Amino acid sequence: MDDTKILLSENELPEAWYNIIPRLPNPPAPPLNPQTKEPVKPEDLEPIFPKSLIEQEMSPEPWVEIPGAVREIYKLWRPTPLQRARNLEKALGTPARIYFKNESVSPPGSHKPNTAVAQAYYNKEAGIKRLATETGAGQWGSALSFACKLFGLECTVYMVKVSFEQKPFRKSLMHIWGAEVFPSPTNRTQAGRKILEENPDSTGSLGIAISEAVEDAATHEDTNYALGSVLNHVLLHQTVIGLETQKQLALAGEKPDILIGCVGGGSNFAGFTFPFIGDIIEGKLEAEVIAVEPTSCPTLTKGIYTYDFGDTAGLTPLLLMHTLGHSFEPPAIHAGGLRYHGDAPLVCQLVKDGYIKPRAYPQNPCFEAAVLFAQTEGIIPAPETSHAIKAAVDEALKCKETGEEKVIVFGFSGHGHFDLAAYDAYLEGKLEDYEYPEEKIKEALEALAHFPKFPTGL
Ligand SMILES: *Cc1c(COP(=O)(O)O)cnc(C)c1O
């Protein structure tokens, strides 16, 4: 097939999500209760999540049916196109064939509504009236606001104060979709009031905003909490991306040699690659799978594999993952969605077992690749997405040297229409490249050392 866009019809939308858990070579390690160091019991999570999502966290089922109401909403923008980047190939002079799965066509502009819609649905089914969440730059907050509105749920977003003040446009999206948005720290929660007492001028952090959203959910009967990445059920919902891509590559008569995605908490990467990794585990596919992160927050490439808290404040269960330590504060790079101290436990396990190869890039070369992409393919990538593009460009240039006609497929996680200030800074030569200093990483990891060694069950 010579088409530039490989499209599926709406009735080819996947009917079930793909669960990697029963296909893993080793069973996943459970999250632990920080007090008892015992695996977290499902009931422990019921104050903030509906039973259906808690079940999906550890489901042994290879496939999980997508509810009809969720598929109907997916049809507002899914199936998303798989596109051949012919102009980019020409500009690079590569014999490789480059494809990208375009998740930027969703209403909020990224992959995040794939799980936001599912989470809103299950909470509505459970009789919940309102969802509380945190957001940094606003990608997740806007996706959840959109999803809640479609299911008639209220939505409360705790937005990191510095972003609330400096990045007004995604806040506008949240308001249009009917959410209430508060600059965090707020005086609506104990967690927020405590921070404000100590430091009235606090500009907030994702860790503080998570604490506020979780407290809001835990203290209101009709309110639950929603998380946009990291957890198994979030990764599960994102697998529509990879399942569609498999069908589209088959239509194009292609087999992927290299699959690439950017990793913040790991959800778009997992959603795109897990169905392929399942095939690799089962010996049905041979391909290289590359996870790309920033050198300023090198979780998979430089972190250690250990149990750590999911949040900065140390309130969540302990997760077995690659981590830079929950006290790690990455510099303020423009790919805000990639600044997380840990990564999804399922992604980390597959890195440890050798199925995923991690790689890190500084932000200037990523923006350079993003601008080349915008100038050839037209679409302006999110700064997060630019990391995947940079890796795809590098792999395509390797093919140019060797003459190999590899098929390179990457996940295009979102557009950058609300990140134009970052592009301005890049074009004006004002962006700093940041290699996180080894000593800083060592310090953060030493802070972890006072934790007892947890049994991993592995
Ligand atoms: C949030 C976000 C990411 C990073 O989150 P993951 O959970 O790692 O996918 C990447 N790209 C875009 C466009 C995002 O909005």
From TrEMBL:
Transmembrane segments: none
Descriptive protein name: Tryptophan synthase beta chain
Annotated family: Belongs to the TrpB family.
Sorted UniProt keywords: Amino-acid biosynthesis, Aromatic amino acid biosynthesis, Lyase, Pyridoxal phosphate, Tryptophan biosynthesis
EC class name: lyase
Named cofactor requirement(s): pyridoxal 5'-phosphate
GO molecular function, one term: pyridoxal phosphate binding
Pfam families reported in the protein's UniProt record: PALP (PF00291)
Gene: trpB
PROSITE patterns: TRP_SYNTHASE_BETA (PS00168)
Keyword set includes Cell division: no
CDD domains: Trp-synth_B
Assembly notes: Tetramer of two alpha and two beta chains.
GO cellular component: cytoplasm
